[in-house]
Amino acid sequence: MDRNGSFSAETRDAATDAQSAPVTIIVCSSCRDENGSDAHPRAGTLLAEATRAAARHSQITEIRTVECLGNCKRRLSAALLRDGCWSYVFGDLTTDSGSDLVTGAELFATSQDGLIPWRGRPDSLKRGLVARIPPLAILKDQT
């Protein structure tokens, strides 16, 4: 992998193999809104519903929820995963960010290098990036 986080020639094969793998969107269903409200349904559940609605006319079919992504200081959170590629965690989302998550997932699904391209990424996914986690296959022990 180079300094920009792109795959090197030796790891590009893993990205190519994963190229046809679907992208999964994971939304934290227990996230509260910006006011910290305990109202039900929780803001995270509303974001998950908005994401499913936005995905109805897309090729993104895997939208899952999890009870907590542990990103509470950044409020509404979600992750994008693709086998053999980097995983992304986003925060500071709103209940209206479902279409942004689907757009990001579509960009990720067509990525040739296993990364979500910066160009075309919705602003909420640019500003809200919390972490980018490498796939285990590209990690090497350093001695």
Automatic annotation (TrEMBL):
Q: Cite a single Pfam family from the UniProt record.
A: DUF1636
- Give the protein name, as stated in the record: DUF1636 family protein
Q: Which organism's genome codes for this protein? A: Mesorhizobium retamae
